[in-house]
Amino acid sequence: MDSISFDRDFDPAYGQAVRIGPHVRRMTAPNGGPFTFHGTNSYIVGHGTVAIIDPGPDDPGHIDALLRAVQGETVSHIIVTHTHRDHSMGAARLAALTGAPRYGEGPHRAARPLSIDEQTMLDASGDMDFVPDHALADGERITGRGWTLTAIATPGHAANHMAFALDEAPILFSGDHVMGWSTTIVAPPDGAMADYMASLERLAARPETIYLPGHGGPIADAPAFVRALRAHRRLREAAIVERISRGDRRIADIVAVIYRETPKVLHGAAALAVLGHLEDLVARGRISAPGGLGLEAIYEPVETD
Ligand SMILES: [Zn+2]
């Protein structure tokens, strides 16, 4: 069985552009927290004429630091991996200061139609103001002087999530889809587990060996890590099915057992993550939800012969 090990060793070096290789510099925004680790990574791609991937939150100090790091260079593209506030909010300020166009899959949206309650949940993390100047299609290539990025649709954490593969090195900017410090939150209404797993399969078939994520340090042996993530999700899914077969009926009861080692402050997010799995399990006919899906719903085993 694959086991997964997370790497929480990371020096954010706030305010500094850290050289990651000949083509990439990283600057981490000072927005650390339980969901953002030490903060959001902004990546500067190329030299002379550069793209900035994920400007981060709307933090004037971080945007200033980015501009200082590229003094004398031209920002030709602003690219966002997805429209969560910690990644795309800074794009408006950076675009105003540089005149560079914004690239992304599209405005924020849910993974599926929403109930009224869910509408407010979506607003909490989503950047509802981001509109790309150029909407990217899956497989589209973005070219600057000395670099080319290919957009790879990777929905799951967010419906409009994209990863970006660099032509000049075996590097993939993996956004929040794959991170080395933690698993990714895949929670409705923004996210969808079936999409997330399909996106992992897509990446598993790709040649890049180094991932540069939206939070935390590089992932050095990315294909092995993606395989371990896949196995980890399947184990979690099996644990949820097992809890329900043993008599748990509510998400809170399942969370209390399978997340017992997770700090309580994260149990709300854990409940959403379990709901993400249950949505997928119900769709696949493995679990039933007689009264409909939801955080407070009743879940039952499906008898199989
Ligand atoms: Zn993020």
What do these coordinates show?
The protein has 305 residues and is α/β, with parallel strands linked by helices. It has two domains: 18-230, Ribonuclease Z/Hydroxyacylglutathione hydrolase-like (Metallo-beta-lactamase, Chain A), CATH 3.60.15.10; 237-301, Orthogonal Bundle (Arc Repressor Mutant, subunit A). 30% of the residues lie in helices and 19% in strands. It is built from eight helices and 14 strands. The chain has helices at residues 60-69, 85-88, 91-98, 116-125, 193-204, 222-245, 251-258, 267-283; strands spanning 18-19, 24-28, 41-45, 49-53, 74-79, 102-104, 134-135, 141-144, 147-153, 162-166, 171-175, 210-213, 287-288, 300-301. A seven-stranded mixed beta sheet has the order 1-2-3-4-5-6-7, with helices on one face. Strands 8-9-10-11-12 form a five-stranded mixed beta sheet, with no helix packed on it. The chain has a two-stranded antiparallel sheet with strand order 13-14. Helix 7 crosses helix 8. It is elongated, with a radius of gyration of 20 Å. The protein binds zinc ion.
